[in-house]
Design brief:
This protein has 223 residues and is of the alpha/beta class. Helix content is 26%, strand content 21%. The longest helix has 16 residues. The chain starts with a strand and ends in a 22-residue tail after the last helix.
Length: 223
Protein backbone atom coordinates (compact mmCIF):
# COMPACT_ATOMS: atom_id res chain seq x y z
CA UNK A 1 0.00 0.00 0.00
CA UNK A 2 1.25 3.47 -0.82
CA UNK A 3 2.23 5.25 2.41
CA UNK A 4 -0.43 7.72 3.58
CA UNK A 5 0.37 10.34 6.20
CA UNK A 6 -2.24 12.73 7.63
CA UNK A 7 -1.26 16.29 8.53
CA UNK A 8 -3.60 17.42 11.29
CA UNK A 9 -3.85 20.20 13.84
CA UNK A 10 -6.13 22.84 15.23
CA UNK A 11 -7.48 25.61 13.03
CA UNK A 12 -4.77 28.03 11.85
CA UNK A 13 -2.00 25.87 13.29
CA UNK A 14 -0.09 25.91 9.99
CA UNK A 15 -1.14 22.61 8.39
CA UNK A 16 -1.13 23.93 4.82
CA UNK A 17 2.29 25.55 5.33
CA UNK A 18 3.70 22.24 6.61
CA UNK A 19 2.07 20.27 3.78
CA UNK A 20 3.48 22.62 1.16
CA UNK A 21 7.00 22.44 2.59
CA UNK A 22 6.79 18.63 2.76
CA UNK A 23 5.78 18.45 -0.90
CA UNK A 24 8.69 20.69 -1.92
CA UNK A 25 11.24 18.64 0.05
CA UNK A 26 9.90 15.27 -1.10
CA UNK A 27 9.89 16.41 -4.74
CA UNK A 28 13.46 17.69 -4.28
CA UNK A 29 14.44 14.15 -3.24
CA UNK A 30 12.85 12.65 -6.34
CA UNK A 31 9.57 11.28 -4.97
CA UNK A 32 6.19 11.41 -6.66
CA UNK A 33 3.71 12.99 -4.25
CA UNK A 34 -0.09 13.10 -4.12
CA UNK A 35 -1.92 15.51 -1.83
CA UNK A 36 -5.46 15.26 -0.49
CA UNK A 37 -7.39 18.01 1.27
CA UNK A 38 -10.44 17.17 3.39
CA UNK A 39 -13.26 19.67 3.65
CA UNK A 40 -16.24 19.44 5.99
CA UNK A 41 -18.26 21.47 3.49
CA UNK A 42 -19.56 20.70 0.02
CA UNK A 43 -17.65 22.17 -2.91
CA UNK A 44 -17.97 22.53 -6.65
CA UNK A 45 -14.90 22.35 -8.90
CA UNK A 46 -16.89 23.13 -12.01
CA UNK A 47 -18.19 26.51 -13.18
CA UNK A 48 -21.92 27.00 -13.52
CA UNK A 49 -22.98 27.10 -17.14
CA UNK A 50 -19.94 25.24 -18.51
CA UNK A 51 -20.48 22.06 -20.54
CA UNK A 52 -19.12 19.79 -17.81
CA UNK A 53 -21.35 21.51 -15.24
CA UNK A 54 -24.36 20.81 -17.45
CA UNK A 55 -23.38 17.12 -17.70
CA UNK A 56 -23.18 16.89 -13.91
CA UNK A 57 -26.50 18.68 -13.46
CA UNK A 58 -28.08 16.31 -16.00
CA UNK A 59 -27.17 13.36 -13.78
CA UNK A 60 -23.75 12.16 -14.92
CA UNK A 61 -22.24 10.09 -12.10
CA UNK A 62 -18.66 10.74 -13.19
CA UNK A 63 -17.49 13.78 -15.17
CA UNK A 64 -13.92 14.23 -16.39
CA UNK A 65 -12.49 17.56 -17.55
CA UNK A 66 -9.38 16.98 -19.67
CA UNK A 67 -6.77 19.25 -21.22
CA UNK A 68 -3.29 18.73 -22.71
CA UNK A 69 -1.77 19.52 -19.30
CA UNK A 70 -3.99 17.54 -16.92
CA UNK A 71 -7.45 16.38 -16.01
CA UNK A 72 -9.92 16.67 -13.15
CA UNK A 73 -12.49 14.06 -12.17
CA UNK A 74 -15.80 14.87 -10.48
CA UNK A 75 -17.56 11.83 -9.04
CA UNK A 76 -20.82 11.73 -7.14
CA UNK A 77 -20.63 9.86 -3.83
CA UNK A 78 -23.12 9.20 -1.06
CA UNK A 79 -20.68 9.27 1.85
CA UNK A 80 -17.48 10.95 2.98
CA UNK A 81 -14.79 9.04 1.06
CA UNK A 82 -12.20 7.18 3.11
CA UNK A 83 -8.47 7.54 2.50
CA UNK A 84 -8.46 3.97 1.17
CA UNK A 85 -11.04 4.90 -1.48
CA UNK A 86 -9.21 8.10 -2.37
CA UNK A 87 -5.93 6.20 -2.64
CA UNK A 88 -7.53 3.89 -5.19
CA UNK A 89 -8.67 6.88 -7.27
CA UNK A 90 -5.20 8.43 -7.13
CA UNK A 91 -3.64 5.24 -8.48
CA UNK A 92 -0.31 3.56 -7.93
CA UNK A 93 2.03 5.92 -9.78
CA UNK A 94 2.97 7.96 -6.68
CA UNK A 95 5.37 7.15 -3.85
CA UNK A 96 3.50 8.80 -0.98
CA UNK A 97 0.15 10.46 -0.22
CA UNK A 98 -0.08 13.46 2.12
CA UNK A 99 -3.57 14.16 3.42
CA UNK A 100 -4.54 17.35 5.22
CA UNK A 101 -7.19 16.54 7.80
CA UNK A 102 -8.79 13.09 8.15
CA UNK A 103 -8.01 13.03 11.88
CA UNK A 104 -10.47 10.15 12.41
CA UNK A 105 -8.66 7.87 9.96
CA UNK A 106 -6.37 5.16 11.29
CA UNK A 107 -3.29 6.46 9.52
CA UNK A 108 0.00 7.89 10.79
CA UNK A 109 -0.38 11.52 11.86
CA UNK A 110 1.90 14.52 11.86
CA UNK A 111 0.34 17.06 14.20
CA UNK A 112 1.06 20.75 13.68
CA UNK A 113 1.04 22.66 16.97
CA UNK A 114 1.32 26.33 17.92
CA UNK A 115 2.17 27.53 21.41
CA UNK A 116 -0.66 30.07 21.50
CA UNK A 117 -3.25 27.30 21.04
CA UNK A 118 -2.47 25.48 24.27
CA UNK A 119 -0.42 22.38 25.03
CA UNK A 120 -3.09 19.75 24.40
CA UNK A 121 -2.90 17.71 21.20
CA UNK A 122 -5.74 16.27 19.10
CA UNK A 123 -3.95 13.18 17.76
CA UNK A 124 -3.78 9.80 19.49
CA UNK A 125 -0.30 8.94 20.71
CA UNK A 126 -0.31 5.49 19.03
CA UNK A 127 -0.96 7.09 15.62
CA UNK A 128 1.35 10.08 16.07
CA UNK A 129 4.43 9.96 13.83
CA UNK A 130 5.76 13.41 14.66
CA UNK A 131 4.88 16.84 16.01
CA UNK A 132 5.69 20.10 14.22
CA UNK A 133 5.76 22.72 16.95
CA UNK A 134 7.03 26.23 17.69
CA UNK A 135 7.72 25.27 21.32
CA UNK A 136 9.30 22.31 23.09
CA UNK A 137 6.47 20.21 24.48
CA UNK A 138 6.63 18.48 27.86
CA UNK A 139 7.16 14.96 29.16
CA UNK A 140 3.83 13.66 27.88
CA UNK A 141 4.87 14.24 24.25
CA UNK A 142 8.61 13.48 24.53
CA UNK A 143 8.09 9.96 23.15
CA UNK A 144 7.11 11.53 19.80
CA UNK A 145 9.80 13.20 17.64
CA UNK A 146 9.38 16.99 17.59
CA UNK A 147 10.41 19.34 14.78
CA UNK A 148 10.35 23.08 14.34
CA UNK A 149 8.25 24.43 11.44
CA UNK A 150 11.46 25.11 9.50
CA UNK A 151 13.05 21.67 10.03
CA UNK A 152 11.19 20.03 7.16
CA UNK A 153 14.35 18.26 6.01
CA UNK A 154 14.58 16.42 9.34
CA UNK A 155 10.89 15.54 9.15
CA UNK A 156 11.31 14.03 5.67
CA UNK A 157 14.32 12.08 6.97
CA UNK A 158 11.96 10.55 9.54
CA UNK A 159 9.38 9.73 6.86
CA UNK A 160 12.04 8.05 4.73
CA UNK A 161 13.26 6.03 7.71
CA UNK A 162 9.79 4.86 8.72
CA UNK A 163 8.48 4.11 5.23
CA UNK A 164 11.69 2.91 3.57
CA UNK A 165 11.22 5.28 0.65
CA UNK A 166 14.92 5.05 -0.20
CA UNK A 167 15.00 1.27 -0.46
CA UNK A 168 14.40 -0.70 -3.63
CA UNK A 169 10.78 -1.79 -3.58
CA UNK A 170 9.38 -5.16 -4.47
CA UNK A 171 6.58 -5.26 -7.01
CA UNK A 172 3.51 -3.53 -5.62
CA UNK A 173 0.07 -5.11 -5.84
CA UNK A 174 -3.09 -3.62 -4.39
CA UNK A 175 -6.41 -5.42 -3.90
CA UNK A 176 -9.57 -3.40 -3.23
CA UNK A 177 -12.88 -5.12 -2.40
CA UNK A 178 -15.95 -2.86 -2.29
CA UNK A 179 -13.57 0.08 -2.26
CA UNK A 180 -11.59 -1.05 0.80
CA UNK A 181 -7.94 -2.02 0.63
CA UNK A 182 -7.20 -5.66 1.53
CA UNK A 183 -3.73 -6.50 2.83
CA UNK A 184 -2.18 -9.53 1.07
CA UNK A 185 0.37 -11.87 2.58
CA UNK A 186 3.58 -12.63 0.69
CA UNK A 187 2.32 -15.95 -0.73
CA UNK A 188 -0.83 -14.41 -2.22
CA UNK A 189 1.12 -11.37 -3.51
CA UNK A 190 3.56 -13.63 -5.34
CA UNK A 191 0.75 -15.82 -6.68
CA UNK A 192 -1.16 -12.83 -8.06
CA UNK A 193 1.89 -11.24 -9.68
CA UNK A 194 3.24 -14.44 -11.26
CA UNK A 195 -0.18 -15.59 -12.50
CA UNK A 196 -1.12 -12.23 -14.05
CA UNK A 197 2.34 -11.73 -15.56
CA UNK A 198 2.22 -15.21 -17.12
CA UNK A 199 -1.26 -14.66 -18.57
CA UNK A 200 -0.32 -11.28 -20.03
CA UNK A 201 2.91 -12.62 -21.55
CA UNK A 202 0.82 -15.01 -23.65
CA UNK A 203 -1.25 -12.22 -25.19
CA UNK A 204 -0.48 -10.63 -28.54
CA UNK A 205 0.48 -6.98 -29.11
CA UNK A 206 1.59 -6.47 -25.53
CA UNK A 207 4.53 -4.08 -24.94
CA UNK A 208 7.85 -5.75 -24.19
CA UNK A 209 8.21 -3.68 -21.02
CA UNK A 210 5.12 -3.87 -18.78
CA UNK A 211 5.37 -1.45 -15.85
CA UNK A 212 1.81 -1.63 -14.53
CA UNK A 213 -1.27 -3.84 -14.77
CA UNK A 214 -4.72 -2.57 -13.80
CA UNK A 215 -7.69 -4.92 -13.58
CA UNK A 216 -11.16 -3.98 -12.34
CA UNK A 217 -13.98 -6.51 -11.92
CA UNK A 218 -17.48 -5.26 -11.19
CA UNK A 219 -19.93 -8.03 -10.38
CA UNK A 220 -23.36 -7.60 -11.92
CA UNK A 221 -25.23 -10.14 -9.78
CA UNK A 222 -27.70 -9.50 -6.98
CA UNK A 223 -26.66 -6.92 -4.41
Amino acid sequence: MIPIICIIGKRNAGKTYTMTKLVVELKKRGYRVATVKHSAHDFNMDQEGKDSWQYTQAGSDVTVISSPHGFALIKKIEHDATLSELSRSIGSDVDIILAEGFKQEKAPKIEVHRKEQGSDLISRSEERLAIVTDEKLGLQQLETPQYTPDDISGLVDLIEENYYLKKEKEDDIFLFINGEHVVLNQFVRTLFINTLSGMIASLKRIPTLVTSIDISIRKKGEQ
